[in-house]
Design a protein that fits this description.
elongated; alpha+beta; 11 helices; Rossmann fold; 5-stranded mixed sheet; homodimer; BirA Bifunctional Protein, domain 2; 409 residues
Amino acid sequence: MRLSKTFIKTLREAPKDEISKNGALLTRAGYIHKVMAGVYDYLPFGMRVIENIKTIVREELNKIGCEEVLLSTLQNPEPWEKTGRFSDQEVDIWFKTELASGGELGLAPTHEEPIITMLKSYISSYKDLPLYLYQFQTKFRNEKRAKSGILRGREFLMKDLYSFHTSEEDLNRFYDEVIVAYDKIFKRLGLGDDTYTTFASGGIFSKYSHEFQTFLPVGEDTVYYNKDKSVVLNKEVFEPDVLEDLGISKEELSETTAAEVGNIFKLKIKYSEPLGLKFIDENNKQNVVYMGCYGIGISRVMGVIAEKFADEKGLVWPEAVAPFKYYLVGIDEKGIKEAEKLYEGHEEEILFDDRDCRPGEKFADAELIGVPYRVVISDKTLMKKSAEVTDRMTGKTKLVPLAELKKSF
Amino acid sequence: MRLSKTFIKTLREAPKDEISKNGALLTRAGYIHKVMAGVYDYLPFGMRVIENIKTIVREELNKIGCEEVLLSTLQNPEPWEKTGRFSDQEVDIWFKTELASGGELGLAPTHEEPIITMLKSYISSYKDLPLYLYQFQTKFRNEKRAKSGILRGREFLMKDLYSFHTSEEDLNRFYDEVIVAYDKIFKRLGLGDDTYTTFASGGIFSKYSHEFQTFLPVGEDTVYYNKDKSVVLNKEVFEPDVLEDLGISKEELSETTAAEVGNIFKLKIKYSEPLGLKFIDENNKQNVVYMGCYGIGISRVMGVIAEKFADEKGLVWPEAVAPFKYYLVGIDEKGIKEAEKLYEGHEEEILFDDRDCRPGEKFADAELIGVPYRVVISDKTLMKKSAEVTDRMTGKTKLVPLAELKKSF
């Protein structure tokens, strides 16, 4: 992409009410635009990061046999009333609205009830199971406070996966497969070193659920971890009986803050029973379908990555999610000409700063936008038939022969 | 995709309240699931059709220099109040909701006000113009009646493009470019032969706007056309002064019904003025930005294509939007073995009916699902080292040598 051709410009200031680091930096660098607290527009750079995150998640889920669907936002109360979740007392983050033709509707904050309703047309026999369906869909949650940029949204993008099984054993098997897939996903996203499978409350249906917590100073959760971080637990289960279960003492654990980037939950028959999602088994007997649900906050992951790696100069993207791999700057007539040549045919990987402005301005924007490698071509580097390549993460600079650089594209 | 591996099954019946042909067929064939009137879930086949339509639209818009963004659904009343459009008297299809922390919000039925608000951070000089930004975003419209399947949704997918200019002349230039791009889009979508640029009301700001109307028996619009269809006009402008303008007499025109698949509009300064979207021109003078807006109903286009080509046996997709190019069936041991070989490495183009059921059932589903080419491999066809290929659109069948078929993948 040519920077001269996009409408995006870096901004000197974020909105005054944008107190989060991720919100302020992503706004200044042209990734997002704040509509109101917890609601953002996504601009071209931001859409690229979101698409990169989605691609990684999609690839890993498809590998374990998941299928993608897209469920509606507008929700009839009926199935939610059957599970007791349409009530504002039970679920306190609903946005509700009214049909012009009469009747209350809700904007889906999650999709257990709608996916069960849909699957009643498709599941009748044990031969139809197991099933694993996921979507990338905007969720709406009426949060009272939303001051954390895209870490906590009133309107945000989530990947939600639902699994359907003939038995609890099969649910357990798939649940463990998802843990492995999630580990791969967070590793690919660049969060592997700081993201831990974390014991959390399982509610009244199972002893534990699992969260995937990324250690982060501005994280909203408090977690406890042992020395080698082989045991991490959420504050909500930091209790004597749990510690005994895990065979660990209070003294071995340290406290820190973390952001929940994923969570997985054995729902069992919590929602499938009241909604009557049943199947006929091998013995011609009717049974209730077992369910699991598995979330990843896609826009939150983008915010966590922004918070995690940013430095005083701006954003720092891991290569796998970066909107571009290279930020290209040509200096002097010859350098610009050579940069043009390098850019040709690589419009997707290179953000080419072809604007008519000072190199210093370009360098500052390169750091703010946070593309992994800044490539500078000038008279000086051309004398060595090279380009100067600076790694945004380490700050290290080296001369790379142009021929070698081209091969890396 | 293996039919045995997807959760999708064709259904004998659509919901009883689904009276539209597109809604009933798309439901029975497993493309969509009805949540309520005008609100649908999209299942894997349906998502593929939507993605194919989006890809064609995106490619043609990118060619004329447009950039993609994604604007939020939740809307602050403020900018809409400035243009007078938050009022239910002015815009009667709002879904509105309440913030838990206080204050009314709307679900965006269109995005002029939000895109102008966002661009106030990015447009200041004539050097920032022209700009062409589009999105694919779910729109919410509180329709009293929604009985036309995905032809008229309460929640539906739209491509909306907005252009920004220093002058009316530049707006006119781009408006004409969009007409050319739209013609290419509808041609590629398979609707070229029946879709016409149609004169429609321009409101009080320009004499005409243009709609793109696909002639269709169940279309909700009435249009008039001359013999060679070089002049097509919406009933709303079927008036003496307009006919005089177009140099055509009432007697030369015939009436028909049509579905509006696109519309384009010169907004000029209608919304940019009240919202204060201004730029500094070459003479250091402040001016209001000129705007155009250009819609294509993505999910509606899917419904129009379904309505247009379906026959008594089911759906018929033009190749460019079809969820798969081939529907593959193997008969007998040898045929199935050869079909497996053919399928390998072509999971994206082939829907492989590898279910354990009668060929007759497979043939019926092939017709209902409407994939362009049915490929049957059996002992009989293998004797001629061939497959039997049936064109869903024409119904014509021919033997095609396997080697030749493989090359066409």
